[in-house]
Design brief:
Rossmann fold; 6-stranded parallel β-sheet; 35% helix; globular
């Protein structure tokens, strides 16, 4: 049997309310292609349903700093694959010059990228109605929201199994994403000029959380470096809903081309 080529490390960054488990299957095509895949847990996400109160005050900047330290220990600069909130964190790291290439799967938008749909605006307001000023709070995952807008293309048993693994999220980090215009620290800011690596942006046509019209705006920030693709019939859970394997193979092929020595 031919030996797999030795390739650069790939760091997969999970989204809000999730953990490294979210990439259990999505990582396999990368590993089959010879990439060394790492999927670290964001700070406090390893505690399951009982995170410490400190989670509520954890910022995007904390998540990014932890990931930067993780990447610094790798033998060479990694490719970053980020889903949803993880896609925003991947952009933040790339702006520091810490990525060889970016694969952004339904990424959350950085500071300054305006929402493009009424649903996005309504979602941010709903958080305030439900939780008040939730900065500093530990936010519990909602099955209703996940079932309707994230895991909506899974069957009932798959949806229940996936949601059972969801964990609480930081109110501070959520605020910094959902209400960036009120965040004096601009925690979600990404200096687009600092991103010098190739970027692949993938968005599901039926995604309401991070819709293709907004993801396209993200890609436009990296003009000349970014490839944007809208995936027909796909929703938000690109890493696990039906069709995920095609997306993973597409991403592997793109990464192979983006990291090939000239």
């Amino acid at each position: 049997m031919p030996r797999k080529p030795k390739r650069c490390p790939v760091v997969m960054i999970h989204g809000a309310f999730c953990g490294p488990w979210a990439f259990d299957e999505f990582r396999l095509p990368f590993e089959d292609a010879g990439f060394s895949v790492h999927a670290p847990a964001l700070r406090h996400h390893e505690h399951g349903q009982n995170p410490p109160p400190a989670l509520g005050h954890t910022s995007l900047l904390d998540y990014a700093e932890d990931l930067a330290q993780f990447a610094a220990k790798l033998p060479e600069q990694p490719v970053l694959v980020g889903h949803s909130l993880g896609g925003l964190l991947a952009q933040m790291l790339a702006a520091r010059g810490l990525a060889r290439a970016l694969v952004l799967l339904a990424p959350s938008a950085p500071w300054g990228v305006l929402p493009s749909t009424i649903f996005e605006l309504a979602s941010s307001q709903t958080l305030f109605f439900a939780h008040g000023d939730y900065r500093g709070s530990v936010i519990r995952p909602s099955y209703h929201i996940a079932a309707a807008h994230s895991l909506d293309r899974l069957d009932d048993s798959e949806r229940s199994a996936a949601f059972a693994r969801f964990v609480p999220e930081s109110g501070q980090a959520t605020f910094e994403v959902m209400h960036w215009s009120f965040d004096a620290r601009r925690a979600s800011r990404v200096a687009a000029r600092g991103v010098a690596c190739p970027v692949l942006c993938l968005a599901g046509s039926d995604d309401r959380i991070n819709p293709p019209s907004t993801v396209r705006r993200i890609a436009q920030r990296y003009d000349g470096l970014a490839t944007f693709e809208e995936l027909s019939g796909m929703s938000h859970w690109l890493i696990g809903e039906p069709g995920w394997s095609d997306i993973a193979r597409r991403a592997v092929k793109w990464v192979e081309g983006a990291t090939r020595a000239p």
